[in-house]
From TrEMBL:
Name of the protein in its database record: DUF4430 domain-containing protein
Organism superkingdom: Bacteria
Transmembrane parts of this sequence: 7-25
This protein's UniProt keywords: Membrane, Transmembrane, Transmembrane helix
């Protein structure tokens, strides 16, 4: 009887470990919504992201990963149209998951912008060194 209980306990712990592992590392960051605004020589994107992770320890590292995916246009559900205009600024609202969006509780907001004197001169795809990241 005791041997059966150990096998069941080990099996349950293994399944639980696989489930938690999938929830933390098995899903990709995704775009839920985006809105672009443009003027004559300036284009900015306001994007809502879901991380699809349980735990986020470093918001800055997470924002940098999101920006990298935006620069590479590497999202499963959304492709940005960089052939028309490349963004000169990126504003992001980041949620843990779609479920947390319903509760209106973002993890953080960030902005990836140029300095004021170079406004519109650079874009996030070709000139990432001209941008600064601010997490709110």
């Amino acid at each position: 009887m005791c041997k059966k209980r150990k096998i069941i306990t080990i099996t349950v712990l293994f399944v639980l470990g696989v489930a938690v592992s999938y929830l933390q590392w098995g899903r990709e960051i995704d775009v839920v919504g985006s809105m672009g605004t443009s003027s004559e020589n300036f284009h900015e994107e306001h994007v809502t992201f879901t991380l699809n992770r349980l735990i986020i320890t470093d918001k800055e590292k997470c924002a940098e990963e999101i920006i990298k995916k935006c620069r590479e246009n590497d999202f499963a559900s959304t492709l940005f149209s960089y052939d028309v205009a490349k963004p000169n600024a990126l504003y992001g609202t980041v949620y843990r998951s779609r479920f947390s969006m319903k509760g209106q509780k973002p993890l953080f907001h960030f902005r990836y912008t140029q300095t004021a004197d170079t406004l519109g001169s650079y874009n996030i795809v070709d000139d990432p060194e001209a941008f600064t990241l601010v997490i709110e």
